[in-house]
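Incident review: delayed structure delivery

Summary: a single-chain prediction request sat in the queue longer than the usual turnaround. Root cause was a stuck worker, restarted by the on-call engineer. No data loss occurred. The affected request and its eventual output are reproduced below so the record is complete for anyone auditing the incident later.

Affected input:
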Amino acid sequence: MVAAARGRTARSGVAINGFEGGQMPLHMRMPKRGFNPLNPKDWNEVRIDRIQAYIDSGKLDAKAVIDAEALIAARVIRRAKDGVRLIGSAGFTAKKATFKVNYATAGATAAIEAAGGKVEVIPAKAPWKKTPYAG
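Output delivered after worker restart:
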């Protein structure tokens, strides 16, 4: 004859799912990642009206190509980070300005092209990839 279960498992309503005898449960030990990317990009977001102010003050040349290096030289941004994003939709009047950036909003692109300029979107730097172990 088989003995009936006694003690905790024989009682109703006391079995706790995920309980590991006082040890921290596995689902609480694992890192929480959620919907955040593992390697997020850190962009320099620059408003086009701010670029226009630098062009008007003479610190930035509208006839030359405006890219990350030109923005650093004019002290619009401190460092290149992962790339430059143009944002904004008004306040840009410089004629024939050419931009080489990693991203530009639709409003910023429309405002620059309405003023007679051009926006060239270049791809961002490739993310660092770990090489597989050769053995």
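Verification: Strands lie at 44-47, 65-66, 84-87, 98-101, 103-104, 118-121.
Action items: add queue-age alerting; document worker restart procedure.
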